[in-house]
Amino acid sequence: MSSEDAIEGQAAVENAIVGFLRSLGSKRAEGLFHERVEGSISRNFELVFLKEEMFLAPTELVKFSEGMNGLVYVGMRRGRISGKIFIPAPSFLEDLKPFIDELNYAVLNDKASWLFLCGRDALPNGISRLNLPDPTAGRLALVFNSGMECLGYGRIEKNGEGDVWIRNLFDLGDFLRREDKKEERRKRQ
Fold first, then answer.
1. Does the predicted TM-score (pTM) go above 0.90?
2. Architecture in CATH of 104-175
3. Domain at 3-95: CATH code
4. CA distance linking residue 67 with residue 47, whole number of Å
């Protein structure tokens, strides 16, 4: 890969992540990118891409794994880039917690948290607190439980009365549901 290709690739990654941060309502998405992503890379870590998947790995591990064939995972998964869209991993969402005051987020009560983890939407009666620097319907919002643990994220929607609700786009229960479906398929075969 030429240095021009590497620079082009880095710019595409930055644009995708900055776009995701903007969709969360960040007014300073570029600054947040440089503080969180570039800041962690410069501390003896590197971004590594395996197909569409993006990982943050210690430089020593990256050097050790160079030349290994069939690698599917290295370091901590940060998300994936699909086209020009960044799809964050749970670890990336958790790293945004220090900056939540400048991002769209909702805190759910216990029942709504459980339902969100089961793939359901966060309805107005389950939302105990909202922070919406950019309340535009269609924007994204992080979703937390009452202990401020990030459960996932969703799209901000408004019902006929103007009440805000969050359409579930990703939650931590997703992995378990996918594994359960795989097991069901195996049993049917």
1. no
2. Roll (2.30)
3. 3.10.450
4. 16
